[in-house]
Amino acid sequence: MAVNNLETSRRLIAARIGSFKVYGLNQLLFEGNDVYGSQAFRESQVDRIIHRFEHEGCRRLDPLTWIPCEMLASDLQSIVGNISSTGYFQDLQLPGGWNLHCFQGQHRIAAALHWLDPNDYWWNFEIYDSAQLNDDCRRRLREFDQSPQSFSDGEIFRNIRHYQQRGETDAAGEWLAKWSPTKCREFNRIYYPKESKDAFNSMGEKLDSLLPFPALWKSWFMGTHLPSLKCPEELADSLSEIHQAWQSLTCQTPEHLDPTTLSLLEGRCPRLSLADQEHIKEIFRDGRAFPDVQNYNTRAHLRQAALEYPKVIPSLRTFLENTKYLKAMTDVIKRVLPPKFKGTIRETMLKYYVPPLEPRFQIQTSENDFVEEQASSEYGFWAAYRQLFLFAMRHFFGLTNIQPLALGQTSYKQRFDASEIWRRFKLCAAMVGFVLPGSKSSQSSRLASSIEFTAIHRLLTRLRPPSYLHTTKLV
């Protein structure tokens, strides 16, 4: 790595033409967020820079604020004539139709155009000869000397995976270094799991499938502790749905999606909501949806795809919001499993599931009622597993202290009796076929907590149900 860095540094020194005071800031070209290592444009970051300008000025003469860019040396010479031998602070007025390709500074220039007097639009640029730059040089100019805080977690995530997939471990490591150790550990638990490798690998693959959609990653946040939920299978299914949705909504062209369109569509359900239908028609009519797509036929297909999408339009933002509720449900399920169980919740619950002798399965139709349904043997566990999660979804308020919306402490009078809810939860689990070892609040005996014992006990009680026993009722 040191040798490569030295070679790149030598190339950059040789390629540097000089520093130029550039006028005509509307002739600058910045890389889009489809280029790995570049930043997505965010108005909030422009506002922060304007705030700094108001307190300390724009500091255009400070070399730390100068923006790296590239141009062919021959083209530059045709504009300015002789280039100063010192290569320092020459004036440069770009002719009409000419552009300067910039590696950084999009937010700084946007803030400058807002803050500076229109008669004083200029900035300092470090210009490099395009003919002497290679990919490593461009990556260095694009990615280095930027504050880690200026990149969102989603941008860092995409770049790490981009370089890991290319086998460029050094570059991936540089991006990982922008995160805290906690975020790095969470990332590694997804891509380098110590247990349930197949399940987590599937989740990682589904995340990777979203990399071609840069706009989706704007709202991604590390630090949500997704691996600790211990349900990578469910998370992978949700991520797969996001991929399928946006493949459809972009007509198989991911580069069509931009952050504005994403924010206008996510969470909408045009199939069921007339208001959402009208909203989608309006944003296509006024051009806010997919503004970079100008072809009439393409826009018509995109509009039709949005209006005909059959579900709530998902995104990584809605995904993370949903995991707040999933966390409450998994917390309930974990309370009836051994404290340090290995594997995922689904894998562990399968161990405690005892199918009926006949393919007739209990389906809960109301809080106190069940009906039998005949189906294939594969149906049993899935029906039971989902019903237990549905119970936890309905009643997590009484079974866990986790509050997805971070509401204030609720009055005790508004809560159901927790012991009664737990009794109904365990009854539901038993009815659908689970023989659980006990919960944290009510540990069963060592014998009864063994999987073998509970499986045999469940089988015997089904062969000889308690209702078969007749006792004399004493009056």
Write a compact overview of the structure shown:
The chain is an alpha/beta fold. It is built from 18 helices and 8 strands.
Question: What would you say this structure looks like, in words?
Answer:
This protein has 475 residues and is α/β, with parallel strands linked by helices. It has 18 helices and eight strands. Helices cover 47% and strands 9% of the residues. The strands form two sheets. The protein has a six-stranded mixed sheet. Strands 7-8 form a two-stranded antiparallel ribbon. Strand 7 and strand 8 form a beta hairpin. Helix 16 packs antiparallel against helix 17. Pfam families: DUF3723 (PF12520).
Strand arrangement within the widest β-sheet reads 2-5-3-6-1-4
- Overall 3D geometry? elongated
Total of DSSP H or I helical runs spanning 4+ residues: 18
Structural class: alpha/beta
Percent helix: 40-55%
Rounded mean pLDDT is: 85
**Based on DSSP secondary structure assignment, what is the total number of beta strands?**
8
Report how far the terminal alpha carbons are from each other: 88 Å
Strand count, sense and barrel status of the largest sheet are: 6 strands, mixed
What's the order of the H and E elements?
Answer: HEEHEHEEHEHHHHHHHHHHHEEHHH
State Rg: 30 Å
InterPro entries: DUF3723
Pfam families: DUF3723 (PF12520)
